[in-house]
Amino acid sequence: MKQKEIRIALLDMNNQQPNQGFKNIVDLVKMFRTESEMKVSFDIYDVRYRCELPTISQYDIFISSGGPGNPHREGFIWEDKFSQFLDDIWQHNVENENKKFLFLICHSFQLAVIHWDLANVCTRKSYSFGVMPIHKTVEGTSEFLFENLPDPFYAIDSRAYQCIEPDDEKIELFDMKIVALEKIRPHVELERAIMAIRFSDEIFGTQFHPEAEPKGFRENLKDKNNKQTMIKHHGLDKYKETLDRIDDPDKIVLTQAQIIPRFLQDATQKITKKKFEFVG
C-alpha cells in the first residue's frame, strides 16, 4: 500500500515585508519533515500580496502566519478569500471524518476572532513587544499543546492590537475554549487580552509567536534601528530584559520546541491513525 503523504500549506501573511517569524515556521516544518516517519511536503502561499489561498482538498495541515497592519477589513480581495478559507475548513470538518488541521498565529489569529465575532479586536494603548509571560486559563491547564509548558510560560509578543471582551455565549455555543491570557498587571486597570483559543479539535490559534527562536530574534534586536526603536518605546531596562530572556532554555526555546511541533505530530497521528512519540 502506498504511504500517505502529509501535505502542509503555509500561509504567508506578511504582505512582502521581511519577517523572521515566517522563516521560523518554514524551519519548524522542515524539521518535522526530516524527523517524521511519514512523507511530508509543503507549499507556501502569499496571501496578502499575491492573493494566494490554498485549495482545502489538496492539503491536510495549514499554518497561517502573523503579519503587519490592521486586522480589520480594508476592502482587499484577499480578505474575502481568507474568510471563505476559514469557513471552508470549519464546514469540511463538520461534514467529513478526514479532518483538516489549522494553526493561526498573531495577525491570522486576530482575523479569525474577527471573522467568527468572538471578541473585541482593538488597538492597545501601547505596542506590546518582548519575551512575555503567557498564563494558562483553567481550560488551558488541560490543553494538549501546553502540556509540557510551565504556568506561566514565555513567548515572543509583538502586537499593536488585542482581543478583549470575549463573547462568552458564542464561544460556549461553538464549543471553543480560551486557553491563555496575557501577563497579569496588578497595577493596570485594563482587561487582560486573550492569547490563545482552542477553536475546535482541529483549529488552534495564538496571539503570541510560538515559532520564534533565539538567534533570529536576537539579531533583530541588535539591529541599530530596531534597538533604538525598542529603547525609545519601552526603555533600556526592557531592552536588556528581553535580551537576557532570549536564550533561557525554559522560555522561548521551550515554547518553540513544544507548541507547533506537538500540533504537527498530533495532526499527523489523527490523519494517519498512527501513534507517534510526542515531543517532550
Quick structural summary:
This protein is of the alpha/beta class.
Please specify the SSE layout and strand pairing.
Layout: E1 5-12, H1 20-35, E2 39-46, E3 61-64, H2 77-95, E4 101-105, H3 107-115, E5 120-136, E6 153-164, H4 168-173, E7 177-181, E8 194-198, E9 203-206, H5 214-222, H6 224-234, H7 236-246, H8 252-272
Parallel strand pairs: 1-2, 1-3, 3-4, 4-9
Antiparallel strand pairs: 5-6, 5-7, 7-8, 8-9
Name the CATH architecture: 3-Layer(aba) Sandwich
- CATH C-level name: Alpha Beta
Provide the helix percentage: 25-40%
Amino-to-carboxy terminus distance: 31 Å
Describe the main β-sheet briefly: 9 strands, mixed
The number of E-state strands comes to 9
The CATH superfamily appears as Class I glutamine amidotransferase (GATase) domain
H/E element string? EHEEHEHEEHEEEHHHH
Sheet with the most strands: spatial strand order: 2-1-3-4-9-8-7-5-6
> What count of structural domains?
1
Number of helices: 8
Mean pLDDT figure: 91
Rounded radius of gyration (Å): 18 Å
General description of the model:
It is a single chain. The two termini are 31 Å apart. Helices cover 36% and strands 24% of the residues. Strands 2-1-3-4-9-8-7-5-6 form a nine-stranded mixed sheet, with helices on both faces. It has eight helices and nine strands. With 280 residues, the chain is an alpha/beta fold. It is globular and about 55 Å long. It has a single domain (5-213, 252-272), classed as 3-Layer(aba) Sandwich (Rossmann fold), CATH 3.40.50. Strand 1, helix 1 and strand 2 form a beta-alpha-beta unit. The model has no long low-confidence stretch (mean pLDDT 91).
